[in-house]
Amino acid sequence: MPAYIGRSSPVTPRKGPPVTDDAPALVFTPPRRNYSSWYQWMVRLAATTHEDPLPEGDTGALGGWVERRRARLGELLGPEPDPVPLAVETLESEECDGYRRDKIVFDSEDTMSVPAYLLVPDDRCDAPPGAAVLACHGHGPGKAQVVGLERTDMPNADYALQLARRRYVVLAPDLRCFGERQDDNPEDHYACDTNLVHAAMAGWNPLAQNVWDLRRSLDVLAQHPLVDPDRLGMVGLSYGGTVTLFTAAVDTRVAAAVVSGYFSSWTESHKMPWNMCGSQILFGMLGKLEHEDLGALVAPRPLLVETGTEDLLFPLGAATEAVRRTRLVYAARGAADRLAHDVFEGGHQWHGTEALPFLDRWLRHQVAAG
């Protein structure tokens, strides 16, 4: 696992015993004097322990633990904005091969609007209300990528389009700082990190703001005449996986979720330099909340985790352990079959092989008309 040490620091890393199955630990030779901020963070991380770890072997304690985790998540997310009318507006429509793509906009706060693509399969227009999916993009072009309008070197990234071709009504919004919601930035400024500076000064959290926008996106889907509000799914890759996990943990309307290229451990991910960004963190989260805590808050609703064997950002060993621990909660609630882990040969990407039939099953969705 690589590490960055500032040029002015005498710190020398060496490899130690493995932390996970696929990532070696970093053992730092303590310097007499340290100049490196990164070294200080790693030392403090190594000394950080979970304040309230999942009580393995004590099923009777799980209920109280889950409620404490719910309270801690609410505390870290902070206050929510005041709700405003959605005021949904269709800006343009295009008939595509087997579906219609509407570009819509709606309001999530009194000073913030959310642009999104709404994909409606042709044979759903005369059908009774059915399943729908909220598709969240990762880092990149934004909503245009997941609906197949823009391509990058990320393979298989058009999962919103894949879902529409599977007869789902799909909503794909731009997250803050992406797509149409990205402000002009100098080339040496990263939008997520710049936005975090402004948010921290004002006492807000960008991750919490995006979760709020996505809960309003669920409102848009739930109110759509072709959608059954009890059959809402949510999917996302990378940062899209981040917001999917958080939103599913706080909003029980998410009836089934797919978290791709994310579910693992913040403690392990924090060891990878330049891995996290200003949109993916909560203030003071280390030691207070972990991925399995959020997975426990999704339980017993269906959750599928995708992990690539070569994903260095969210490594397989940490993901496997987090899923194992989350499975204890699902089993205690009699829902062991509702948690799945798709481990595939590949890197940081959407897989979809198990995810799509998983959604079909738990959202009671018919792929073929009739």
Helix content: 25-40%
CATH architecture label name of the largest domain: 3-Layer(aba) Sandwich
Strand order of the largest sheet: 3-4-5-7-6-8-9-10-11
| The CATH C-level class name of the largest domain | Alpha Beta
Proportion of beta-strand residues = 15-25%
Please tell me about this protein's structure.
The structure is a single chain. By secondary structure, this protein is of the alpha/beta class. It has 2 domains: 1-47, no CATH class; 89-362, Rossmann fold (3-Layer(aba) Sandwich). 31% of the residues lie in helices and 22% in strands. The chain has 11 helices and 11 strands. The strands form 2 sheets. The chain has a 9-stranded mixed sheet, with helices on both faces. Strand 1 (12-18) and strand 2 form a beta hairpin. Helix 2 crosses helix 9 (291-298), helix 7 (239-250) packs across helix 9 (291-298) and helix 9 (291-298) runs parallel beside helix 10. It is globular and about 70 Å long. The N and C termini lie far apart (51 Å). The model is unreliable at 1-21 (pLDDT under 50).
Task: Name its key features.
two-stranded antiparallel sheet, globular, single chain, 31% helix, nine-stranded mixed β-sheet, alpha/beta, Rossmann fold, 370 residues
SSE diagram, text form:
Blueprint: E1 12-18, E2 24-29, H1 37-46, H2 62-77, E3 89-95, E4 99-109, E5 112-121, E6 130-136, H3 143-146, H4 159-165, E7 169-173, H5 191-202, H6 206-222, E8 227-237, H7 239-250, E9 254-260, H8 266-269, H9 291-298, E10 303-308, H10 316-332, E11 339-344, H11 355-362
Parallel strand pairs: 6-7, 6-8, 8-9, 9-10, 10-11
Antiparallel strand pairs: 1-2, 3-4, 4-5, 5-7
Helix pairs in contact: 2-9, 6-7, 7-9, 9-10
